[in-house]
Specification:
single chain, mainly beta
Amino acid sequence: MNRKLLYLGLIMATLTSCFDKDIFPDTPSIAFEDIKFIDTQSTDSLKLTFTFEDGNGDVGLDDGPDLLVPYQIYDLIIDSEDSVITISTDPSRISPPLFKAPVFIGENNGEVEYIFFPGDKVLFSDEDNRPPYSCDSYEIIESDTFYIARNEFYYNFHIEFQRKLGEDSYEPINFRQIFNNPDCSLGNFNGRIPYYDPEGKSGTITYSMLSQAFRLAFLDDVIRVKFYIYDRARNKSNEVVSPDFVLADITQSQ
């Protein structure tokens, strides 16, 4: 838990609000502005800057209240008797259908607590559909490996790196595969744009991603990024694709 929190803390967003009187739709609209690679002695930084417009100014999440439904990090999978499902649960002890129950992760007297809410469960599967182990589908909590469903809305900023293969041909860059590491935190550069003054209906966001993986993964390759955001009402913006770039061409020394 501490390791994951530390990793996510290496992704930062800064936001400058513009208090315009223009009327925008409530669904956010974004546009690419700039991308830079900051070359440092230790951890490098890739900085993506984009503009946004949102009619009700509800871009951004608060890391306090916005860890609860509907922004929880994942749901536990439970059966019809509200029993949690682990990777090793005997199939004969599972009572389908399966449901998703949101989880709140808190702290009590220095101990991490995982609290799930069966009253808010929604249908997940009509049968026991557990896949083989992966960090996408399971969470290790103490000595058990729980079946989970990760929540798309935990992150309000989503980004994918793509490598150019040929003219108009690209493939997603799989950092886990490149580094032969199944850890979900590796290569997950999604993040949470912080909550700000709701009067700001347009502005500029700079999203910084700190990692030593960039130069190892695509130093001389032609790449691009595709990204989108959600507002607090979970309205999805348009998807934006950056221009092609090579790391050396966007590098600045610190």
